[in-house]
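Notes from the 1:1 (GR / supervisor)

We went over the backlog. Supervisor wanted to see one worked example end to end before approving the batch request, so GR pasted a single chain during the call. The sequence is below; no edits were made to it. Supervisor asked that the structure be written out right there so they could see what the output format looks like.
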Amino acid sequence: MKRILTAIVLIALVFALIFLGKSWMITVAAAVVAVLAAMEFRAFADAGKCPIPLWWLVSAVALFFLATYFRPTDTIAVVSFVTLVLFAVAAFRMSLDLVLWQTSVGLLMLLYVVYPLTLIPQILNEENGTALLLFLFLCVWSGDIAALYVGKRFGKHKFSPRLSPNKTWEGAIASVVASCAFGMGLVLLGDWFTQQNSSFTRLHTTEPWWVFLILAVVLNAAAQFGDLLESALKRGAGVKDSGTMLPGHGGILDRIDALLVAAPVLWFVIAVRDTFSMGSL
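Structure output shown during the call:
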């Protein structure tokens, strides 16, 4: 019951932000999630004896999001700057045999945890951004739920026993099917709204349905890969969950691990579309 109630609250908050929130509100919300997730990542680093200074973590995340919001073309410069700051701190304050590892862990935190979350408001600001962002969330959420419940009930063949012994091929296949079903449901719903009420077009998409079907499969594969990557981090740190912040769900990272890979994949697809003038999604 805790798991279901927590999921309902989180989904309601996300929908409220997407449909009612301003761009800066979504950016702030994504930044808060990034800080909380980065703190859980920091716990992994502590377990591996590569501590990341808390003041640096918060400052780095804040600068990253500020650059994304005000000067998106300068985000690489911000990553370089904050990484060099961490490098200098490690060099002068840590044992020399930890300098490389602490700097590397900090950079990984920025690229793995923070950068994907900076893409959320950017995706929303794209053409058909509302539909694209909801499509991303639905593919990730529905796939995760289907993998969990189908895998528990019908799963017999292990998917990746080394990284995640509870994941099964049955759950993975159900995950793909669910992402396709819910993703296409959103596309069809958007078309229906457009036909019924021409003034509500936020869910409308202009590409043919089969493009989104392929995209759903790609995003689901990315999401499942992201889930396995976080499992590798947890196993390396010797922990079961990344945290206890979300009742019934574990930590923040446990809930967004799939999104952290799926969001950059969607952003890459958008970048390819724009580069080669392939229309709009």
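Supervisor's comment: Residues 207 and 281 are 5 Å apart (CA to CA).
Batch request approved.
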